[in-house]
Amino acid sequence: xxxxxxxxxxxxxxxxxxxxxxxxxxxxxxxxxxxxxxxxxxxxxxxxxxxxxxxxxxxxxxxxxxxxxxxxxxxxxxxxxxxxxxxxxxxxxxxxxxxxxxxxxxxxxxxxxxxxxxxxxxxxxxxxxxxxxxxxxxxxxxxxxxxxxxxxxxxxxxxxxxxxxxxxxxxxxxxxxxxxxxxxxxxxxxxxxxxxxxxxxxxxxxxxxxxxxxxxxxxxxxxxxxxxxxxxxxxxxxxxxxxxxxxxxxxxxxxxxxxxxxxxxxxxxxxxxxxxxxxxxxxxxxxxxxxxxxxxxxxxxxxxxxxxxxxxxxxxxxxxxxxxxxxxxxxxxxxxxxxxxxxxxxxxxxxxxxxxxxxxxxxxxxxxxxxxxxxxxxxxxxxxxxxxxxxxxxxxxxxxxxxxxxxxxxxxxxxxxxxxxxxxxxxxxxxxxxxxxxxxxxxxxxxxxxxxxxxxxxxxxxxxxxxxxxxxxxxxxxx
Amino acid sequence: xxxxxxxxxxxxxxxxxxxxxxxxxxxxxxxxxxxxxxxxxxxxxxxxxxxxxxxxxxxxxxxxxxxxxxxxxxxxxxxxxxxxxxxxxxxxxxxxxxxxxxxxxxxxxxxxxxxxxxxxxxxxxxxxxxxxxxxxxxxxxxxxxxxxxxxxxxxxxxxxxxxxxxxxxxxxxxxxxxxxxxxxxxxxxxxxxxxxxxxxxxxxxxxxxxxxxxxxxxxxxxxxxxxxxxxxxxxxxxxxxxxxxxxxxxxxxxxxxxxxxxxxxxxxxxxxxxxxxxxxxxxxxxxxxxxxxxxxxxxxxxxxxxxxxxxxxxxxxxxxxxxx
Amino acid sequence: xxxxxxxxxxxxxxxxxxxxxxxxxxxxxxxxxxxxxxxxxxxxxxxxxxxxxxxxxxxxxxxxxxxxxxxxxxxxxxxxxxxxxxxxxxxxxxxxxxxxxxxxxxxxxxxxxxxxxxxxxxxxxxxxxxxxxxxxxxxxxxxxxxxxxxxxxxxxxxxxxxxxxxxxxxxxxxxxxxxxxxxxxxxxxxxxxxxxxxxxxxxxxxxxxxxxxxxxxxxxxxxxxxxxxxxxxxxxxxxxxxxxxxxxxxxxxxxxxxxxxxxxxxxxxxxxxxxxxxxxxxxxxxxxxxxxxxxxxxxxxxxxxxxxxxxxxxxxxxxxxxxxxxxxxxxxxxxxxxxxxxxxxxxxxxxxxxxxxxxxxxxxxxxxx
Lengths: 479, 324, 369
Description:
The structure holds three protein chains of three kinds.
Chain A: E1 4-7, E2 17-23, E3 30-31, E4 36-41, E5 46-50, E6 55-60, E7 67-69, E8 73-79, H1 105-115, E9 139-140, E10 144-145, H2 189-198, H3 216-223, H4 253-266, E11 271-279, H5 281-292, H6 303-317, E12 323-326, E13 331-334, E14 340-342, E15 344-346, E16 349-351, E17 354-355, H7 363-378, E18 392-396, E19 415-419, E20 423-431, E21 434-450, H8 456-471
Chain B: E1 2-5, H1 6-20, E2 24-28, H2 44-48, E3 53-55, H3 60-72, E4 76-80, H4 91-98, H5 101-104, E5 114-119, H6 134-138, E6 144-147, H7 151-163, E7 168-173, E8 180-183, E9 196-199, E10 204-208, H8 212-225, E11 230-234, E12 237-239, H9 244-253, E13 256-263, H10 268-279, E14 289-293, H11 304-307, H12 311-322
Parallel strand pairs in B: 2-3, 2-4, 4-5, 5-7, 6-7, 10-11, 10-13, 13-14
Antiparallel strand pairs in B: 1-8, 6-12, 9-11
Chain C: H1 29-54, H2 68-76, E1 83-85, H3 91-96, H4 101-109, H5 118-121, H6 132-146, E2 161-166, H7 173-184, E3 189-195, E4 198-199, E5 202-203, H8 215-219, E6 223-227, H9 231-247, E7 252-257, H10 276-283, H11 287-297, H12 303-325, H13 345-358
Parallel strand pairs in C: 1-2, 2-3, 3-7, 6-7
Antiparallel strand pairs in C: 4-5
Helix pairs in contact in C: 1-2, 1-11, 1-12, 2-9, 4-12, 6-7
């Protein structure tokens, strides 16, 4: 026969310990299931604990005033009917039972008393709606509720049992693994539908999924492959055009990422755009001179190169344009080097790879880096790593013949400069004969900046500096 | 090789089992002197006596309950429930006792009982004589449930069911009792709990059991004229299901239709569809389609032909499957 | 219902022998003393099991308190080859058939659904569906007939079957169908009904308008009523009825008129539906007390005889308790092997799948706490 130990329970809200404030029973007392045996103090309040066992208190294991952890045994109870040191076997139910006499007249009394846990008393004795333990609806051992036909229900916890290691990715041993059919393509219904909609022949698709299963992106890859003709607008796919209707292009890949980035940026940073139209004839002359220079024979020289250099120089005077707004830390983080992003149109869409440490490069190195970056982007081989960590971006809308725009910041950056087309336009020039209108090489710069980081003065100064470097490249000497 | 009706094939099979094992007893209403209302037990009482072919009181629960006691005493009772619609008074003895005693006793009390039930419609009968309760029994753990579709299978399957040490609900398609087929008594039979491809095909797999097998075979002939090749599989065993041949077929055709007279809602087809979807997911060109009864009780006999699945309903489902 | 019903009685509640024109107890005092021991030990099993249920060691217990004499009396009249089909309260019959009382408990504890071998003990598994076993008993008896084990005159071969059931069961269709089959086929089955006056909370007059034993004549076989608290009378009538069956004279209905002193099962509350006065009335008819009185007064048994039995019952109670708490839960994977005599691939696969799933958990836990 073993004593039953009642362990300090977690009475709720993650109790870890409690103090024994006062015992309501002492060794030798008879207890019934649900009798209050002790009062404990938790972090929040005083709580009375009911006993889960019926029988005789054998020992109080924790003294009043002591604090113990949840799970510590606090009281030991000898279950009823057990061989507690007592000559009478009739210790059942704790009822007052006469000691057994040789005349078995007492036999049925004993047994009947043993059977009736509450002899002749109806349930709900206390009149408080609580059913007596052992009757239907009342408490049953093990924290259950008593029923006519068995142990009764117990309450469960909303907690998973701990598993060994990581769960199997294929759904575990209870999931049957589908076998590959002979001579058929493996594809789930949604993928089949996608292929059908995109006009992709599943047999032509190379599967990349586990077990030779064709995945969604396998189908998309085949559908979104670059057209061999140059000038195919990025982002479109080979979707068949239905007569007189509409064409639906699934949002995926680069376009999807671009869209997300634009939304993020546009609706987070308050954008301000400032414009500057310049006479860049001297810059154009510089570009021609460099192109003819033997040192620059192995690289491509363009206005974009000069603008890139100008941006790197101007950042020195207004480093705030090379910063980022850290919302969570509530800090403006000014970056020390310039990782200059160049927006590039590729067959897959817009990508913005950056030249790391552009500010530390000489013009020739900058030209080489720029050429490489553009070449890779044009081939569609730009890697994600090359697009991360940019600090400022230049977008050359001029190649499309466009004057200017209101560029959207690359998320995380504070400034973006749009370079418009460099074209011949009338300009007022002050000459020996006074003011004259002459054709000059003219371009428009548009600078968008994050107004949380940069105020109007700073933005204007930066733009003006860039502008002056372009209109008068000799001013680079001043930096 | 002989040509024989399904009812006669059952009669011959019962006779062979009774000759082979003195413990086999046949019991049911009108099975003795009358030979059964479908004549399936014709002549057995004359040959084996009243102790082994028992005309019972009109008491279905009594038929099955006493069969339990006979089985405990070492006998192999073959009970006949006269019509599918009258099995329900015996339902408690079947699901609470016959199905559970082996389990309850830890294997000490096997129940080698066969419960023969003529089932299905198409005989122009009054109410309660055209039911399809097979899903209820297939859903009961501890029973085995089989359905023969033709005379040859009937001859072998009844003997195998009697020889099986587990309880078998043996469903006989009553509208096919008088259909003839070739029976080779020397041939080695397929295992009882196995399904069978009864017609090869390449475009769509059609599954059926009992009375619908013939309907599906006829459907396949009609479809072939239109250029569609249907593979027909006779499930034969409903619990446990033998679906490996079905999966192999579906992996070839990619399309499957399940046909039964029983109500579609929660019928055998639902379970088969769920398993095919799990095992053949990547092979499916179309969802598993089911053809069967509507969610109404069986209709009056004059319109039963419009209620029961027929060739046109089967091929309609085949067309829908092919359209995916 | 008359206050003192007419029934066969051979030992009064006060412990005096009386005679009956049709039945006599053919045993001696030694046998009566032995039956007394059975009565006491059976009651002790019942008491201990009730206590164990209170402590959560059993999920449920169906007490036979008050019905000991009906069970011991009838069971002691059976020959070894006779087969008894119980309900779920025949712990006294189980005792006489040699079933270990610890084996009885496993069902109530919830570790199995019946742990003895019926074919070896000639004692059916406890059947919880009310009345279902009466058909099983009748079918078994029909098998006995086909085995030629009726009316041979060989006491060791001729076999009787006894179907035990209660008053409530007589309303079930199965019981009435069993009466029909038994009478129509003249089966060697004795229908032993313990009318303990209650079916959970419903009294006997909710099951019948006439004394239960009179039903039999409607079905065409003899019925009689016996004092269910009189172990000698129960023995005598059962012996006679089983002899009739063995000889080939067919079924008998015995109504043992007794009282369910305890609750239907351990969480039932009889105070909700019956008067404590009834209980007091029946306490005066206690089956053990009258035998105790007889043995003291007329068989010359002294204190030490009774003390020895008490001591033996203490030992038995202790063994039952130890056996009960030591019972281990079965492993859930075992259930897959028990469904069929011929295992299916499907079930074997389910078992393997579940085993693999269970193996993914850090600790194996039995769900029962």
